[in-house]
Amino acid sequence: RVLAGRPRDLAGRRVVVSAGGTREAIDPVRFIGNRSSGLQGYALARTAVARGAEVTLVAANVALPDPAGATVVRVESTADLRAAVLSAAGTADAVVMAAAVADFRPAARGDSKIKKTSAEPEPIHLTKNPDILAELCDRRREGRGPAPEVIAGFAAETDDILANGRAKLARKGCDLLVVNQVGENLAFGTPDNAAVVLVAGGDPVEVPRGPKDDLADVVWDLVAARLG
Ligand code: CTP
Ligand code: CA
């Protein structure tokens, strides 16, 4: 589908998309990061704009130009991403968490650069990060403040994709979970993706290998169908 040929079925809707991968500082010059390029999140933002939505794109460490028509908030750490997503989610109809969020961060971030000495290096102790997607779903379930009508997550699974994905969808309490098939040169940094979209209370939707824009459109089709 060309961008101009899309339905305007998200007109008047506010959506939040997170993209990229968070970085957790070890010291002022080093971080723990991941391989997310942000391409899938940017495809989601671009296609949502084309379908008429008002889009806030929360971008973590993405080396891509801002998509036209979206409000872009650039962040680095999981704490930054959480603050930006939760703040934008308060007035959003839908949130799609496409970002790869670090599960752990160094427990202590040194203010000075770690220096190499003749001794063996100290281990880096990690602590858990908050789960932003679960937090959004918990807030909605508990009726704590305004909450998005549709909440979607992404998951990259390597084995037993359907069983792992189903368990994750239930655990998080979200409406949609896009389960990426990793491997075979798919997902990270490539223009193509292949996925199964798990739907709470519905049948899974298989999306064959194809451009990330196509997967984005399937996600927005499912989001639009769930918006009242
Ligand atoms: N996510 C999040 N906050 C985190 C970790 C993940 O909001 N601290 C979101 C991701 O943006 C994604 C979804 O949760 O949309 C699933 O991420 P994933 O890493 O697959 O799930 P985890 O619960 O972290 O499980 P695991 O990594 O152990 O498979
Ligand atoms: Ca994780």
Automatic annotation (TrEMBL):
In the C-terminal section; belongs to the PPC synthetase family. In the N-terminal section; belongs to the HFCD (homo-oligomeric flavin containing Cys decarboxylase) superfamily. Residues 10-225 form the DNA/pantothenate metabolism flavoprotein C-terminal domain. This is Coenzyme A biosynthesis bifunctional protein CoaBC. Its EC number is 4.1.1.36, 6.3.2.5. Binds 1 FMN per subunit. Catalyzes two sequential steps in the biosynthesis of coenzyme A. In the first step cysteine is conjugated to 4'-phosphopantothenate to form 4-phosphopantothenoylcysteine. In the second step the latter compound is decarboxylated to form 4'-phosphopantotheine. Residues 15-228 are annotated as: Phosphopantothenate--cysteine ligase. Its cofactor is FMN; Mg(2+). Pathway: Cofactor biosynthesis; coenzyme A biosynthesis; CoA from (R)-pantothenate: step 3/5; Cofactor biosynthesis; coenzyme A biosynthesis; CoA from (R)-pantothenate: step 2/5. It comes from the Bacteria. One of its GO terms (molecular function) is phosphopantothenate--cysteine ligase activity. Keywords: Decarboxylase, Flavoprotein, FMN, Ligase, Lyase, Magnesium, Metal-binding, Multifunctional enzyme. CTP binds at residues 103, 113, 130-133, 154, 168, 172. The chain holds residues 179 to 406 of 406 of the full protein. It catalyses: (R)-4'-phosphopantothenate + L-cysteine + CTP = N-[(R)-4-phosphopantothenoyl]-L-cysteine + CMP + diphosphate + H(+); N-[(R)-4-phosphopantothenoyl]-L-cysteine + H(+) = (R)-4'-phosphopantetheine + CO2.
